[in-house]
Design a protein that fits this description.
The chain is of the alpha/beta class. The chain folds into two domains: 2-179 and 356-376, Rossmann fold (3-Layer(aba) Sandwich), CATH 3.40.50.2000; 187-352, 3-Layer(aba) Sandwich (Rossmann fold). Helix content is 44%, strand content 19%. The strands form two sheets. The protein has an eight-stranded mixed sheet. Strands 11-10-9-12-13-14 form a six-stranded parallel sheet, with helices on both faces. The protein is globular, with a radius of gyration of 21 Å.
């Protein structure tokens, strides 16, 4: 098959989306398929990679997004797609690229929309609280999702949480969990030298691997660690990631046992950080999967997650879910750390081994084959 995957909000620091696109592309290529990725960037490029041909279209930065870009040259994009002649089209975007579903239908090409985030969650996270309280956010999300469902052949969600907003409007959804690179992320990457750089021997090392933006709620982790320190628990939180709230979160953390690494480049370095921590905090309330949390589990490191998100589904018994307050997170961290260390690490790795990328690839290819048969029939 010839598979095209188009996305916005893809960049050097885009985390889960970039990882998922590369893993899907690599898996398709390894199975003998032709892959095209089209993404936004600072300049036009066209290159061959291990995960397929990647075309970058120079695209404007979306204001207040922390530097993310969105593709605006849709006519040129459609020309690129016609030249590639895809058998199936995958789209990871709710904004400028949503119209590609309708274009694909007119061209007789089956299409998949990846629901990487919830529309109602995005609205709630990005609108001023007072305005959001007055608007019918659920109805607005339902209207948007009905339009998306009309355009695309198949809606794919990674968790029940992500699928729920389509379930409530009666739209069928294919559930396809994402996977994890079990070789790159593994407990044996634990490095005492790296750990000693980040925390003293008597401190518990906590890691937050997250973009510092409003929807990720990094303030919950900051305030929870401050509470733990006030209770006399020797903890050290290291924050890996940057974003629009960088200055604000750094100011909030002053006086607490918290350090900032900024964006961590290099998967090996990131994997070592995850494996060297005692626990990871994932405070985001609207996460629809949370690849960083799954990578933590693969590294043998358990995770404290937000109970409002999809992450309790992902981490299962390998983590602890906390309601959305600093006290709840502090209590959950303490509960997790009360478990024997070896048991925590063994349970984490065991859970990750249930979600290899190979299973995701197999499931997506089955969906594509079925969609092709329906369209051609």
């Amino acid at each position: 098959m010839r598979i095209a995957h188009i996305a916005n909000f893809y960049g050097p620091t885009s985390g889960g989306l970039r990882t998922a696109m590369h893993a899907l592309g690599r898996g398709y290529v390894e199975r003998g398929h032709k892959v095209l990725l089209v993404v936004p960037g600072a300049e036009d490029t066209d290159e061959l990679t291990e995960y397929g041909r990647r075309i970058t279209l120079q695209s404007p930065i979306l204001p207040l997004s922390g530097g993310y870009r969105v593709i605006s040259r849709l006519r040129e994009l459609r020309g690129i797609l016609r030249g590639f002649r895809p058998d199936v089209l995958e789209v990871s975007d709710r904004t400028t690229l949503r119209s590609l579903g309708g274009w694909a239908a007119r061209e007789g090409i089956p299409s998949v929309f990846f629901s990487h985030e919830r529309a109602d969650g995005i609205l709630a996270a990005n609108l001023p609280e007072a305005l959001g309280a007055r608007l019918p956010l659920e109805s607005m999300a339902d209207w948007h999702n009905r339009g998306t469902a009309r355009r695309f052949t198949t809606i794919v969600s990674t968790t029940a949480y992500a699928a729920e907003e389509f379930d409530r409007i009666g739209v069928p959804v294919e559930r396809v969990p994402l996977g994890v690179d079990l070789e790159t992320f593994r407990p044996s990457r634990h490095d005492e030298a790296v750990r000693s750089e980040l925390a003293s021997r008597d401190e518990t090392l906590l890691l937050m691997a997250s973009r510092l933006s409003s929807e990720k709620r990094p303030d919950l982790a900051i305030d929870a660690v401050r509470l733990l320190a006030e209770r006399g628990m020797p903890v050290r939180l290291v924050c890996a990631g940057g974003g629009a709230l960088d200055a604000q979160i750094r100011a909030r953390a002053q006086g607490a046992p918290i350090d900032f690494l900024g964006f961590v480049s290099g998967r090996d370095r990131f994997a070592t950080l995850l494996a060297s921590a005692d626990a990871v905090i994932a405070p985001g309330p609207i996460e629809t999967f949370g690849l960083a949390a799954l990578e933590s589990l693969a590294s043998g490191t358990p995770v404290v997650v937000n109970a409002a998100s999809a992450l309790p589904e992902v981490v299962a018994e390998a983590g602890v879910a906390a309601k959305g307050s600093p006290k709840e997170f502090a209590d959950a961290i303490a509960t997790l750390l009360s478990r024997p260390a070896e048991e925590r690490r063994r349970t984490a790795r065991s859970r990750a081994e249930q979600l290899p990328w190979s299973a995701t690839i197999d499931r997506m290819l089955a969906i594509h084959r079925g969609a092709k048969e329906r369209v051609s029939g």
